[in-house]
Description:
By secondary structure, this protein is α/β, with parallel strands linked by helices. The chain has helices spanning about 15, 20-35, 40-55, 65-75, 95-100, 120-125, 145-155, 205-215, 240-250, 250-270, 305-315, 345-350, 365-385; strands at about 60, 85, 105-110, 130-135, 160, 170, 175, 180-185, 200-205, 280, 290, 295-300, 340, 355. The chain is globular, with a radius of gyration of 21 Å. The structure holds pyridoxal-5'-phosphate. This is Aminotransferase. Its EC number is 2.6.1.90.
Amino acid sequence: MSAKQNGVPLLDVNRDNAPHREEFIDALTEVLDSGRFLFGPDVAELECELAGYCQVPNVVGCASGSDALLLALMALGIGAGDEVIVPSFTFFASVSCITRLGATPVFADILPGTFNVDPESVASLITEKTKAIIPVHLFGQCAQIDRICQIAGEHDIPVVEDAAQAIGAAYHSRPAGSWGTIGCFSFYPTKNLGGMGDGGMMTTNDAGIADRLRLIAGHGMRPRYYHQVIGINSRLDTFQAAVLRVKLRHLGDAIESRAAIADRYDRLLKDHGLVGGAELTLPQRDKHAFHVWNQYALRIGGGRRDEMRSFLAERNIGSEIYYPVPMHEQECFANTPFRHNGLAETERASKEVLNLPIFPSLTEMEQVRVVEAIGSFYSKAARAAA
Length: 386
Ligand SMILES: *Cc1c(COP(=O)(O)O)cnc(C)c1O
């Protein structure tokens, strides 16, 4: 067999979608025939279904996860002179929503085991200027959101959960997005509930905030051509909503498959004797969290992460680095004021993290190939050292 046939993709969207092809075509045809490409019935139906799924009374669709975060901070009135606490070890959009509004990001460090934001780091950064806290539920596992909400509550600071990677996740059995003032979700195709294009949503327990989010997402216009506030245009379109309703029906199964894949990686890596030393660390599971495994994130120590990634790439085995450059080191923020009090774990994670292929239709054979390749990386190194 050629190397290509032995390869393993990081993600195969077509393979995941293939079993539901007929359902997608039926749903999309209905939208096409309705001619209602915006504000079609699927949008309201999806919002209603997701409210049930996330156990929140209010869901507002929007154009992307990035917009969800921006709209959330706009609805909270964040602006110049305000500080917002956020991890630096995250995707750009968790931070750009802050700087776009002229507010100052304040970067909290992460916990080394889960890569999630450290609540005590958050607590140490609070000042009278702190106007919001954005915990990120990274890789599909909730941050310690109970503790974060407690800290925020003591200071009366709103919490905006960046749950872009964590739909269906929970902490102490309570869903991601139902803990904070506002929850922000993404339907980007690689997310656990991925559309066929861009999309996002916001969740909130507060009907007044939901109304404000809707107003701001619709040009701040109410009634038509009367603009109460300077809003933006951010809508979830009907085609995406129709696709997402199909996908939502299968989301429970998809999460089960991802969890089984994560368990199998753990077992295979242990069986290969690859775990225990300082070289490779399995993703840590918080016992209070229901993890939905958007990513399976290893830590590769000894300064060999990039070498490992190249070794896998030569064998056509996909891997990715989420994230190679923390936000406080990004070029685009070089002239932006921000603050932190030490980000040692963030910087170490950016040099050690390596994400393996994980998607619902990934096969056991493919996982075996991934783990065997990792094993041969270390045995080759052992031979070279001997
Ligand atoms: C994907 C993602 C976003 C942004 O979502 P988009 O829909 O791509 O705009 C925000 N935060 C995190 C942590 C993400 O992973």
